[in-house]
Write a structure and sequence with these properties.
single chain, mainly beta, Porin, 16-stranded antiparallel beta barrel, two-stranded antiparallel sheet
Length: 397
């Protein structure tokens, strides 16, 4: 039954292709025609295994050996005459399959593209980069802690040379939309990405404002919290109390550069929740990372975000594939104005092997030092460190 909708979509699309259709391979067959129609299946599978070592006295579930199917997605994408394109992708999970992306885009001109449906809003380079192309198994801590997620909305992207400007109005995630839900957010991002000599630069800023509507009136509270690097555990060493948040305002700064096999990226993000009662805190997240392809590849970059790395000598051509080393410092502060959610100083090391363009294996190690952790260790200590090892096998198409 899970595949029924997928087969139906492909079946509906098939009559659009006449005798002038052609097929090319892009991870999966893309069937297109001179009239402007095209269709291609898409998806990914990511399987993670990890181990979390905490100090004596920390006895919450989810420590030690863990594993999960991190993502199992299946969908379809393509184009239609008149400059239109579409994406539909579902997460195959229990107990309910979840729609991840569901968009229709229109390329109104060479510079302007409009998108409607469920998609990412514009809050972070790391968040907007597909998990297929990320440096580490998980994104920087603040992207989860600040509750970034896809939402229903209407957005526009305007490009002019090295400048990209994005603006959108969003409602709520499809999974969370209720009748009468009046949540509304406005998100904007601007990027300056010149190529100077042999270096690709990326400088950006984003701003976000959200009105939670009647969320508080319905008795729903908000928590800001984060797992210890790997998603396969539900343990949260950083966590604020439940807060009655009426509105949120946040700001972000981005910087990145690519030169040959080397890349650098850093982001800072400030989140200011407006509470119904009590002082309004400001939470802060930051990361800086550097990476080096030992085999000479260059990290992919397109559309103001990281993209697929093309392997110089893939295994199917007798090569060894691409090997990349990554190092990241990951900081998160969820303590402010009397709210104690804890502080993380994380040092993370990653080794990535890409044998061919659409297959990846990642091995990560993280040393996470916590102050005022939400989970006490022996002797009620709340300042300690946690060690995490994570391994991922991934294929996408």
């Amino acid at each position: 039954m899970r595949l029924l909708w997928f087969a139906t979509l492909l079946g509906l699309a098939a009559p659009a292709f006449a005798q002038d259709s052609s097929t090319r391979f892009a991870g999966a067959p893309r069937i297109g025609s001179t009239s402007g129609w095209s269709v291609k299946p898409r998806g990914r599978v990511q399987y993670d295994v990890g181990d979390i070592s905490a100090p004596a006295g920390v006895t919450v579930p989810g420590l030690g050996s863990v594993d999960e199917v991190r993502r199992a997605r299946l969908g379809v994408e393509g184009t239609a005459p008149g400059g239109f394109s579409y994406v539909f992708e579902m997460e195959l999970s229990e107990p309910v399959d979840e729609i991840v992306d569901a968009t229709i885009s229109w390329r109104a001109s060479d510079r302007l593209t409009l998108t409607v449906g469920q998609h990412n809003n514009f809050q972070s380079l790391d968040e907007l980069t597909s998990s297929r192309f990320s440096s580490f198994i998980e994104r920087a801590a603040f992207t989860d802690a600040f509750n970034f997620e896809r939402r229903l909305g209407l957005s526009g992207t305007l490009t002019s040379g090295p400048v990209t400007a994005q603006l959108g109005i969003f409602h709520d995630n499809l999974l969370d939309v209720d009748e009468g839900d009046d949540m509304l957010s406005v998100d904007g991002r601007i990027i300056y990405a010149p190529r100077i000599g042999g270096t690709q630069f990326h400088l950006g800023a984003s701003a976000h404002w959200r009105d939670n509507g009647d969320l508080v009136a319905r008795g729903t509270t908000t928590r800001y919290r984060q797992r210890p690097f790997i998603h396969a555990t539900d343990a949260r060493f950083l966590a604020t109390p439940a807060l009655a948040v009426d509105r949120e305002t946040s700001f972000g700064l981005e910087a990145a550069a690519i030169r040959g096999p080397f890349h650098f990226a850093a982001e800072a993000h400030w989140l200011h929740p407006d509470r119904v009662t009590g002082a309004d805190p400001t939470f802060f997240g930051f990361y800086a990372e550097a990476g080096w392809f030992l085999t000479g590849e260059t990290r992919g970059y397109r559309g103001a975000r990281w993209d697929r790395t093309r392997v110089r000598r893939p295994v199917e051509e007798g090569g060894f594939g691409a090997v990349q080393l990554n190092l990241r410092y990951d900081y998160l502060d969820l303590s402010s104005r009397g709210i104690v959610g804890g502080i993380q100083n994380g040092l993370q090391l990653g080794l990535t092997w890409i044998p061919t363009d659409y297959v990846r294996f990642l091995a990560n190690y993280a040393r996470l030092s916590y102050d005022d952790a939400a989970i006490p260790a022996g002797g009620m200590r709340r300042d300690y460190a946690v060690d995490v090892i994570g391994v991922r096998a991934q294929v996408d198409f």
